[in-house]
Amino acid sequence: QVQLVESGGGLVQAGGSLRLSCAASGRTFSNTAMGWFRQAPGKERELVARISSFGSPYYADSVKGRFTISRDNAKNTLYLQMNSLKPEDTAVYFCAARDRGYSDYGYWGQGTQVTVSS
User: Fold this and answer.
1) Cα–Cα dist 107/118, whole Å
2) Where does the pLDDT of residue 101 fall: very low under 50, low under 70, confident under 90, or very high at 90 and above?
3) Which end of the chain has fewer CB atoms surrounding its CB within 10 Å, N or C?
4) Is 99 exposed, middle or buried (0-12, 13-18, 19+ CB in 10 A)?
5) What are phi and psi for residue 84, nearest 5 degrees?
6) Three-state DSSP state, 84
7) pLDDT tens by residue, 3-59
8) Alpha carbon separation from 98 to 29, 64, 103, 104 (Å, rounded)
9) 53 CB neighbour count, 10 Å cutoff
10) Radius of gyration of the chain (CA)
11) 76 phi/psi in degrees, rounded to 5
């Protein structure tokens, strides 16, 4: 059974930092693109960052310079280092994986809550 399990969310004050992890099991994701998405209450889910199987990152403008996506293929784990957090970063954060040749992310975690207080 393929699973993506996020951890590391929590409550933090504005300006603080959190590191999210996404542990994959059931198969290797070393040759897939992976991404972090978030969904705030009343808003659509949005892409925060993604990383190719080769390690090339992409960031949404809203998090560029503050968030860093990385992956450890040996551990089958995806990370998101979030610095200088703002209240508007408050959301449920999801990790996802997209197999090569597919346009959609076919694997999703259950999400982890990040709350940034002002």
Assistant:
1) 33
2) confident
3) N
4) middle
5) 50, 50
6) coil
7) 999 999 999 999 999 999 999 998 888 889 999 999 999 999 999 999 999 999 999
8) 9, 22, 7, 6
9) 16
10) 13
11) 55, 45
